[in-house]
Amino acid sequence: MEDRLQVTPHFTDATCGGALLTNQEAPSSTSGLERHLNTIPTPRDQHHVNPAHYDVESIAVAFLFRTYSKSRRERHRLIAIMASSFPRSSIQLDYPLYAIDFDPEDATRVVVGGGGGAGRSGVGNKITVLETVSQQELRSAGEIALSRDEDSVMSLAVGPHRGKSTYLYAGVNSSPESIAKGKNEHLRALSVDPSKLRTSVGAKTPDTNITEASRTALFQDPEVDTYQRLLRIAGSTGVAATAMSKEPQLAIFDVAGAAVKLLSVLKIEKEAEDLDIVQTGENEFQIAYCYKYELWLVNVSGKEISEPRRVYVMMDDHGERPAFRALRYLSPNFLVAATNLPKRSGVVIQAFRLPKLEQAEARLCLNARIPRKISATAFAVANLSPPSSPFGALGETQFVIAVAGHDCSITLYTLEHTVGGSIELLSKLWHLHTLKEVHGNANITAMAFSRFVTPKNNLRQQYIKLASTSLQKTVVVNSIALKKHVEKAPRNKKGPPRAARYVTAVKSRGVSSRGLGITMAIFALLMALVAQAVLELSGQNTPILGVERIFPAAWHGSLRAPDHPPAAFLADEFLAKLGGRDIVKTVTGETLVVYEGDLPPATAGGDDQVPELKLDVHEPSVHGPGMTWEELGEEQKEAWKARLKEAGAWTQTMGEAVFKGILFGEIAGAVGRAVAG
């Protein structure tokens, strides 16, 4: 039992039989023990009971047990909430998986592809259609085995429906023999149709039939090692990109069922790390692709295709220059990307506002760094309130972003899109949840979100699905619970209430300042303790910390009376003792004079009375010419030293340096007494 009580008290109650209850001996059910412990009062209850009835050990254990039980129940409650918010289903196939995509018109259907490649490895090349029966069950609904002489499925996209048929498009290289002859029909179109077979009750027959419909070669002058690594489709237009090619290419094509029509092939400077396509208008599209530190755009309008245009270059931030790993369109105006920091030191999610003018550049408008040292291996984005038409205006909505790391985790973020007048804004790129060890220790190769459509009623719990694949032949579908959200205030006072939309049931959280606040509080506490210790050592404060018992006796009072204080400090102290602290602050640039004042009339004739020493700004008409310390004779110097000692303004340890820059007035009486001996 995982949550057993880690104590070994001796109970005399009959419930425990007078035996020692240890961790190894804990029963499978603690109801009897719990009833026994709940009868024992806690320390707060001791004034209500006779202490003789209970031993101290039992009371302490009962108190700890109740506290522990409450924290355990709270932990289990939170675990249950998180489990219900992110239910999981999985299935293991018989081939490694590289590509995945959801049916855009059926959120219960997901398609995966992969294989062992060309050769006699014994692992076939396949495409499998899976169905999510429930949040906890995933099953195969159909499968096609491809030729073992050809390459594995490296990219995959589900296109629009045509009647009862759904068309898939996959990147599969032809056989090495065919490629050697200069022919590589790498783009395959496949049709997924309902099964027409009638079977007896209980027989396991696929629900769908998958058949190959066409093969097309898009790339020009293919090389032996070149393959189609990237493939994306939006509406009736698709784009594919090469990998391992000396002359990287983008192929743009039309899809109309099984027919694939090539529109253009663009040669690009370097291989695209990732790409995406979005519909911007009637028969108008835009393609975005990235490599290393650059973001490029291509506009497609009918048969007119623009040249690639670089719109953003990643900035070097103190040696940490992120490199693009993946990107996805949020809308025709915004794009979000996952970027890797050098040496697997982290991942930064960056959102860009795309330019509307041909000469303008994209602008980074939002970013968030995943607080773990990982690198991104896959990326997916979902819109929880998509527009009704493919290129319709985007309203207020929440996006869910998934980043797969090389540590086998999937980190989920949310991003808010708001509209104010004609201005669209992105905000609150906040962490939602981290799914750990999604495929055990296997690296995640691909991810895809299902398309969520707001339901007409909300009688059932709503979910959006996130599917992922691994090289270890596993497919996992994590469902993310959603809830209805209604804005409290209308967009304007006289306007209608805002439409209800869905957001994640678990609330995402931004970067918390709690850690900084705690750090600052600890720092302030430490500084207060240091200040108190210094004051105690100098004898200026009542001992509270008792630092005099820790530090050697030679340190005690050393801060109050240093053996060799700075000369400037001694000069200020000397002046302050003569004329007060204020004069130290106001005499900068002035010449001061020390002189004897007049005796009070009542004591003018007393032999024991001496005039008071005064310090003032020197005025020759009032104080006379005055003399510097160097101009005084030895007898006058000794007389002034004695006089200043009597006044408590000077000590021998201060030295004569404090007299420099000060004029001295007449001290005839004192000189006479000093001379007389």
UniProtKB/TrEMBL annotation:
Keyword Transcription part of the UniProt annotation: no
Tagged with keyword Repeat: yes
Example GO biological process: endoplasmic reticulum to Golgi vesicle-mediated transport
InterPro entries, per database record: Sec12-like (IPR045260), WD40/YVTN_repeat-like_dom_sf (IPR015943)
PANTHER family: PROLACTIN REGULATORY ELEMENT BINDING PROTEIN, PROLACTIN REGULATORY ELEMENT-BINDING PROTEIN
Recorded family membership: Belongs to the WD repeat SEC12 family.
Protein's name according to its UniProt entry: Guanine nucleotide-exchange factor SEC12
